[in-house]
Amino acid sequence: MASTRTFSAIFTILILSAFITSIGWAQQAPLTTGQPAVSQSISPAPPPKIDSGDTAWLLMSSALVLLMTAPGLALF
Length: 76
What we know:
Largest sheet: none
Oligomer: single chain
Strand content: under 5%
Structural class: mainly alpha
């Protein structure tokens, strides 16, 4: 029994360390070619427009997820 717990603890640590390092690799800066960067005046992006369809979908999907928790907890 103790060897199973030790194995599961080691396995969990290995999985978590692999996950954490993959997050770190995803955040690396892009490689440069050695050429100087050209400064351009970039205008800021316009603010996003609030769409009623997107809002309705978000509210409906949130309500469905909330309704799923009651049967899920009852089955648990």
